Structure formats: C-alpha cells, structure tokens
Amino acid sequence: MLYKKIFLFFSILTLVSCAELQQVVNNMPAQIDPATIASGLRQALDFGIDKQVSKLAKKDGFYKNQMVKILLPQELQKVDQTLRDIGLGSLADEGLKVLNSAAEDAVKEATPIFVKAVKDITFNDAKTILMGPDNAATRYLEQRTDKSLYEKFNPVIKHSFSKVGADQIWSNIINRYNAVPFVTKVNPDLTDYVTQEALKGVYTMIAVEEKDIRNNINARSTALLKKVFALQD
Length: 233
Known about the structure:
Elements: H1 2-27, H2 34-56, H3 74-85, H4 89-120, H5 126-130, H6 136-163, H7 166-178, H8 190-215, H9 223-229
Helix pairs in contact: 2-4, 2-8, 2-9, 3-4, 4-6, 4-7, 4-8, 6-8
C-alpha cells in the first residue's frame, strides 16, 4: 500500500512537472530564420529614421535637443569666449545656432540616404545582433555605413551651410576673431566638423528608437517587430 502511494505521488509530480514544462515551451517564441530576424532589425532602424531622425529635420531639431546639440569644437571655444569678452556675444550665439541649423537642413535633404543605407545593409549574424545590447543594430549600421554616409552627407552639409547662411556668418566670426591683437589665427574646417556631428546625432536618435522597441512591447507596432523582438525578451 505504501509503495502504491509513493508511486502515485511521483506520478502526479511527473505529470505536474511535464505540464509546467509544456507551458514554458508553449510560451517560448518559435524559432525564426535569420532572414526574418534581419528584416525585423531593418524595420526597427527604419522606425528610428521615421520617428526619431525626422525630429532632427525640424526647426531647432538639433539646437534644442541636448542629446545631439552641436557644440563648438575645442579650437573654436576660445573664439566664442573672445567674442563674448569684446561684447560680441550675440554674434557668438548666432554662430552656434547656424551650425545646428545647417545640420537640421541637411538631415531633411539626406534622409533618403539613411533609408537606402538601412535597406542595403546585410546582417551577417542577425540573431547575435538581436540578442545584443540596446543599440546593437544601430552600432552595426554605423560601423558599416559611416564612411559611405559621410561621403554622401558632406556635400549636403556644405550646401546647407550656404543655404542657411552659416558660411557667411562664420566667415565674419573668424575674421573678427583673427583681427583681435595677439590671438592665434584659426581657420577651421566647419563643414567636416558639422558633418561628423550631424551623423553622430542621426545614429544617436536611431538608437533611441531601437532601445524603445527592445524594452517596450507597446513600441512594437507591427507583427514583424512583435515576432522578432519577442526572441530577446
């Protein structure tokens, strides 16, 4: 009788354990092929461009966003301070603002460049990227597109400098500064600097959306995003 009770106890325990195990299995996402995972990562990056990068193209999109606001390079910080010391603080403020305005204008024109870069990117190990840190897909995009995007983005920035009047304002600023007695004259390549800072801002904002999709189930607004990112939950 005792043996029967022991046998019955372990049988029930086994059945319960199997039921719980089956429930865990049922709740696990099905295996997804790498091509589908790659498509999900691309869609997350596309959403970053559509939702976050588009904000940069608006008026003061860079200037009033502390995450990406373009500050003066170190060599121009002394220019800024000198102008303020001689009563030209408003000119210094205008110079900083037009750098950001040029980036905003350029992002507006160059958004298709980023969209194409995402479309063309090949994820060699999509699952590893999916299971990586919150910005893994964005970092992967940056590592594989930064050089080519710079080459395409730089002339757009140069055009935007002229369009928003940044070239004239900064020519005036540099001439005013270089005319101050005893200062070391400067001639910075602001087009190169703003190009790099603008690209950095774009990748930063794409990463914001990627992080949201990874950590907020409600941000997964498509069936593909739900399916793919359930794997990393």
